[in-house]
């Protein structure tokens, strides 16, 4: 569903992503890890079409994100690490705007908004202006917006930041349900406990290159440890 082929991104003389080849199939929650400055955010922006690759390409269900942006993005949702809402729109108006962009009918938007507002407990503030929201409130509305049109590919960056324990637990359960329904989820996080709890596979990037890829057990074997992901991550990124 998500396919990266020889992906390269340079900014002048700096190589941010260096020949990244990777595939995330339907029904998999893939967790992307790396130290600060490793190329995670650049990779995500390449996947969702916010950056143009220097070389290589990104395919979403066979559609090149650069050559066929409308077809590729129609099945995609992206949750950035900093949730964005329009200050002068209410949460409900923002959800309606997002739904209309994806061609949903008013009734479809109303029905899905009702479901998601109950799921993420946003009903108490959904009719308030976005400028009044806390970070956690924004995160819950932005995640709701991402799920509104039932995407087949979900790219999500630091999803638990700002969420209280109940909200984080709800989101983890939702992600696992999406995977069970065949959605390809590409998640970046610094919270290794979340990765351990949710990942089907893990990829670790350092200095723009993929240095480890596989299930948690495969990552542990690569790092020569049978303990925690934190130890494996530190060993691999220190040795790379």
Report the C-alpha radius of gyration, rounded.
Answer: 18 Å
β-sheet strand percentage? 25-35%
Q: Let me know the number of strands.
A: 10
CATH top level of the largest domain is Alpha Beta
**Arithmetic mean pLDDT:** 93
**Morphology call:** globular
Oligomer: single chain
Output the strand order for the largest sheet: 6-7-8-3-9-10
Q: Which stretches of 5+ consecutive residues score pLDDT under 50? A: none
Ordered list of secondary-structure elements with their pairings:
Elements lengths: L1 E10 L2 E11 L4 E5 L6 H8 L7 E6 L2 E2 L4 H5 L2 E4 L11 H11 L4 H14 L15 H13 L5 E5 L7 H16 L3 E5 L3 H7 L2 E6 L2 E6 L1 H8 L5 H11 L1
Parallel strand pairs: 3-8, 3-9, 6-7, 7-8
Antiparallel strand pairs: 1-2, 1-4, 4-5, 9-10
Helix pairs in contact: 3-4, 3-5, 8-9
Describe the structure.
By secondary structure, the chain is α/β, with parallel strands linked by helices. It folds into two domains: 1-75 and 163-240, P-loop containing nucleotide triphosphate hydrolases (Rossmann fold, 3-Layer(aba) Sandwich); 85-150, no CATH class. 39% of the residues lie in helices and 25% in strands. It contains nine helices and ten strands. It has helices spanning 40-47, 69-73, 91-101, 106-119, 135-147, 165-180, 192-198, 216-223, 229-239, and strands spanning 2-11, 14-24, 29-33, 55-60, 63-64, 76-79, 153-157, 184-188, 201-206, 209-214. The strands form two sheets. Strands 6-7-8-3-9-10 form a six-stranded mixed beta sheet, with helices on both faces. Helix 3 (91-101) crosses helix 4. The longest helix has 16 residues, at 165-180. The radius of gyration is 18 Å and the shape is globular. The two termini are 29 Å apart. The mean pLDDT is 93.
């Amino acid at each position: 569903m998500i396919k990266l082929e020889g992906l390269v991104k340079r900014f002048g003389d700096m190589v941010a992503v260096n020949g990244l080849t990777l595939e995330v199939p339907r029904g998999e929650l893939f967790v992307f890890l790396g130290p600060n400055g490793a190329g995670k955010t650049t990779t995500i922006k390449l996947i969702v079409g916010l950056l143009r690759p220097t070389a290589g390409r990104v395919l979403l269900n066979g559609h090149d994100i650069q050559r066929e942006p409308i077809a590729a993005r129609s099945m995609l949702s992206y949750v950035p690490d900093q949730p964005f809402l329009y200050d002068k729109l209410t949460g409900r108006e923002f959800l309606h705007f997002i739904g209309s962009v994806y061609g949903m009918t008013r009734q479809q938007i109303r029905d899905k908004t009702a479901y998601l507002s109950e799921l993420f407990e946003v009903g108490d503030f959904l009719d308030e202006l976005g400028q009044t929201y806390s970070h956690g409130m924004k995160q819950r509305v932005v995640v709701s917006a991402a799920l509104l049109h039932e995407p087949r590919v979900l790219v999500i960056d630091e999803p638990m930041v700002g969420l209280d324990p109940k909200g984080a637990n709800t989101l983890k359960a939702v992600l696992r349900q999406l995977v069970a329904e065949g959605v390809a989820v590409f998640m970046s996080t610094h919270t290794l406990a979340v990765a351990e709890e949710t990942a089907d596979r893990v990829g670790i990037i350092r200095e723009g290159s993929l240095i480890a890829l596989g299930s948690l057990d495969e990552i542990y074997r690569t790092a020569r440890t049978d303990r925690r992901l934190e130890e494996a991550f530190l060993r691999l990124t220190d040795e790379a």
